[in-house]
Amino acid sequence: MMTSSLLLALALTGVAPVAAPQESPAPPPCVADARWLQDSPTTIGPTGEQPLTLFTAVGRGGADCSAWIVFSAVYLDAGGGLVCSGTLDLRVPHAGTVRYTALAVRPGNPYEFVRWLNGPNSASQPWTRFACRTLDGQTEAQPAEIERARTIRLHATVLPAHGGLAVAEMRLPIWGPPPAPPH
Predict the structure, then answer these.
(1) Sheet containing strand 166-173, strands side by side
(2) Does residue 38 belong to any structural domain of this protein?
(3) pLDDT digits (tens, 9 = 90+) for 19-57
(4) 56 vs 37: CA distance, rounded Å
(5) 3-state SS, residue 136
(6) d(Cα 31, Cα 58) in Å, to the nearest integer?
(7) What is the structure's pLDDT at 2?
(8) Radius of gyration (Cα) for the chain, nearest Å?
(9) In a domain, 43, yes or no
(10) Whole domain around residue 162: which residue ranges?
């Protein structure tokens, strides 16, 4: 608050007092939700395919909350140990408030790992490769290493443009050849 002597001095010099600009508070982040519609998929064989549907919703009181859905996965062995993990080269745009994303997953085939079934050009939508990285984060897992996996955890992450986050996890049990007996 300006004192009366400062106001008098400003008036005598002909300078009008300048109000400091008021910063409006930042809008709240977008609220996001993500859920897999399947409760517990059946065990999938090494060459099997699992259809999955992801429900996502974003919003913030009428403001734009466009978002991207990104996917990551981790292969775990019978004891829950990490075999390999990584992100997929699949980004699904989320426009509007609610979206249902239909996918097909081939857990035993990292070269044709996931396909977006209801995406643009869904009839010709290619399979997305999954470059699964070993513990060092640098090396891509070899087929023999991936064969040790007994579970895949598939994560869908919703990333709204104006902040907010939601993650859904799906556990996919897989089976393969029995482990070799110890020598």
Answers:
(1) 82-94, 67-76, 151-160, 166-173
(2) yes
(3) 556 677 776 788 999 999 987 777 888 788 999 999 999
(4) 10
(5) coil
(6) 6
(7) 47
(8) 26
(9) yes
(10) 27-132+146-173
* Tokens coding 81: 């140990």
**What are the structure tokens assigned to 125, written together?**
């939508």
Indicate the SS3 state at residue 5: helix
CATH number for 157: 2.60.40.10
d(CA 156, CA 170): 9
Q: Do 173 and 40 meet the contact criterion of CB atoms below 8 Å apart?
A: no
* The predicted structure's pLDDT at residue 175: 79
Amino acid code (one letter) for 37: L
SS3 131: coil
Residue 3 lies in a domain: no
Cβ atoms < 10 Å from Cβ of 79: 6
Residue type, 178: P
Retrieve residue 123's tokens.
Answer: 């009839």
Q: Give the count of domains, the chain.
A: 1
pLDDT digits (tens, 9 = 90+) for 152-162: 999 999 999 88
Q: Which residue has the tokens 């709240």?
A: 28
Which residues are within 8 A (CB) of 48 and not within 5 positions of it... i.e. 6 or more apart?
106, 107, 108, 174
Is there a domain that residue 1 lies in? Answer: no
122: phi then psi, degrees, rounded to nearest 5? -55, -30
Helix extents (H) in 14-70: none
